[in-house]
Amino acid sequence: MTAGKGVRRLPLVYACEILTELRLWRRLTETFRTAKPSRGADVHEDANGDGPRADGRLTPSGADQEFLALERELTVLLRRARANQGEMAREVHPDLESSAYGLLIRLDECGGRRATDLAAYVGVGKATMSRQLRALEDLGLVARQPDPADGRAWLVTLTDEGRGRVGQVREARRARYVSQLAHWDRREVAELARLLHQLNGVMDK
């Protein structure tokens, strides 16, 4: 157990947090739709809707059922992740935009970053990033400080207030994951985290 918290941190937490910030969903769906058929078994729900099964069939377009099943499940997961991101943003601050929550997570995990680096990470233009950072500054969640590596540049960092608010929300979310997956074998949790990490690595290329 984590000291003072009573919550065991699971590797799935970090994989799910990556998914909530997934910026390449269009590329992901395109990958599934254009994937070449394989000789492996295809996976989809059985007639009773009891889960995936294998029968080796392809769709009329020639796509593997297993890729379509994967796309379907990820669509559900990402839809829920987007909804959860908005909820968590409001938990950090009632006036925080959903899209800005990912910036706070990035700063919490990686420390100070230049605005240009944050814009590239999120996939937005400089003007949009400047607007989001001004809003975060107005809420007292981030601040700018000189970049020690380049006096002409500035780093965006979390304020103490921002770090505390983000930490509370993330800890509460981890507790929910632990509760929801309490009946899972820890090896299954670790395997899911590994596969999600592998998927994210493919999509970032």
Key attributes of the depicted protein:
205 residues; mainly alpha; two-stranded antiparallel sheet; globular; disordered N terminus
Explain the overall architecture:
The chain is mainly alpha-helical and 205 residues long. It has a single domain, classed as Winged helix-like DNA-binding domain superfamily/Winged helix DNA-binding domain (Arc Repressor Mutant, subunit A, Orthogonal Bundle), CATH 1.10.10. Helices cover 59% and strands 10% of the residues. The chain contains 8 helices and 4 strands; from the N terminus they run H-H-E-E-H-H-H-H-E-E-H-H. It has helices spanning 11-20, 25-34, 65-92, 98-110, 115-122, 126-138, 160-180, 186-203, and strands spanning 43-45, 52-54, 142-147, 150-158. The chain has a two-stranded antiparallel ribbon. Strands 3-4 form a two-stranded antiparallel ribbon. The longest helix has 28 residues, at 65-92. It is globular. It starts with 10 loop residues before the first helix and ends with a helix. Residues 1-27 and 35-48 have low confidence and may be disordered.
